[in-house]
């Protein structure tokens, strides 16, 4: 196929979100899928870099909801050829409840096929080797067995060594890990294979004790990340790029309608801008503008048709 390949690796799930009264709305989402979604929208604006394909690497079941997800991704031009199928498992599910714009989640993912996404070593290694940019998250690592985590990081490390973009959002979800110490150790190891790290300060301060966004950025660099962007809930963010100098950037805070997908959309906007050749500071502004649009609507994914005319993506 023509075009360069952005590969997002992780778990996509059925999303149930409150709609009106006792009604619930079904959709599809998941941190790495959300970022792939916004990458697709942003890279559609690319008239300079030569065009990008966006693909998702995961594992689904043979159940009807898995089939619907495949059709949904295909319809929105997120390639599904790297998604494996498991006849013994199914797709995970989660629900979102909102309280003054902030979210709380309930999960049903024990039999999620995505937990075995790294079991086929040949498929995973081949997909990553074909990619020109790779993205994964702390959730991707958390759902895998320890030896599968190690294999995934080994493959990503080879991609970084080849000079390609390897991006990582720690997206701390302690309940998915066997222990807090294991979570911290694996996130440090992931930093060492990431050309771009995208941590969120509130989570990092809670679990790593960072005093401020500058300390957070420095710690990620010390652990091996190349470029670091510390998100801060819509407030001041920190950028640590190649020179080693930390730049802070003031961002407009907004009251969210629904904060679901805020960080994921920021990641998609930032990575797409960097792939299009924008400097980190400009990329961060584009990403923040996109995230503000996302938190102003319900659900993790804004309709692709609405995003195609979004000025923040240009």
Automatic annotation (TrEMBL):
PROSITE patterns tied to this protein:
PFKB_KINASES_2 (PS00584)
Top-level taxon of the source organism: Bacteria
Q: Which InterPro entries match?
A: Carboh/pur_kinase_PfkB_CS, PfkB_Carbo_kinase, PfkB_dom, Ribokinase-like
| One GO MF term | 2-dehydro-3-deoxygluconokinase activity
SUPFAM superfamilies given in the database record: Ribokinase-like
- What GO terms fall under cellular component here? cytosol
User: Is Transferase among this UniProt entry's keywords?
Assistant: yes
Listed A to Z, the keywords are:
Kinase, Transferase
**Biological process annotations from GO:** D-galacturonate catabolic process; D-glucuronate catabolic process; DNA damage response
Q: Which family does it belong to?
A: Belongs to the carbohydrate kinase PfkB family.
Q: What is this protein called?
A: Sugar kinase
Q: What species is given as this protein's source?
A: Ancylobacter pratisalsi
Q: Which taxonomic lineage is given here?
A: Bacteria, Pseudomonadati, Pseudomonadota, Alphaproteobacteria, Hyphomicrobiales
């Amino acid at each position: 196929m023509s075009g360069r390949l952005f590969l997002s690796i992780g778990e996509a799930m059925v999303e149930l979100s409150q709609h009106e009264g006792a009604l619930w709305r079904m959709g599809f989402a998941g941190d790495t899928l959300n970022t792939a979604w916004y990458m697709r929208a942003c890279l559609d604006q690319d008239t300079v870099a030569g065009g990008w394909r966006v693909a998702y690497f995961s594992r689904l079941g043979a159940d009807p909801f898995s089939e619907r997800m495949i059709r949904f991704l295909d319809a929105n031009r997120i390639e599904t050829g790297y998604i494996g199928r498991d006849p013994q498992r199914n797709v995970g599910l989660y629900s979102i409840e909102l309280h003054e714009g902030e979210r709380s989640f309930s999960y049903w993912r024990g039999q999620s096929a995505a937990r075995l996404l790294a079991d086929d070593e040949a498929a995973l290694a081949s997909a990553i080797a074909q990619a020109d940019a790779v993205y994964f998250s702390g959730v991707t690592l958390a759902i895998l067995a320890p030896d599968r985590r190690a294999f995934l990081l080994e493959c990503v490390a080879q991609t970084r060594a080849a000079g390609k973009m390897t991006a990582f959002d720690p997206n701390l979800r302690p309940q998915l890990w066997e222990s807090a110490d294991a979570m911290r150790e694996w996130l440090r190891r992931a930093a060492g294979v990431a050309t771009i790290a995208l941590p969120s300060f509130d989570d990092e301060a809670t679990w790593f004790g960072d005093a401020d966004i500058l300390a957070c950025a420095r710690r990620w660099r010390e652990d091996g990340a190349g470029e670091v962007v510390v998100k801060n809930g819509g407030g001041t963010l920190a950028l640590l790029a190649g020179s080693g100098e930390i730049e802070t950037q003031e961002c407009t805070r907004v009251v969210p309608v629904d904060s679901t997908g805020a960080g994921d959309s920021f990641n998609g906007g930032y990575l797409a801008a960097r792939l299009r050749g924008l400097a980190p500071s400009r990329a961060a502004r584009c990403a923040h503008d996109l995230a503000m649009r996302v938190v102003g609507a319900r659900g993790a994914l804004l309709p692709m048709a609405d995003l195609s005319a979004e000025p923040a993506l240009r």
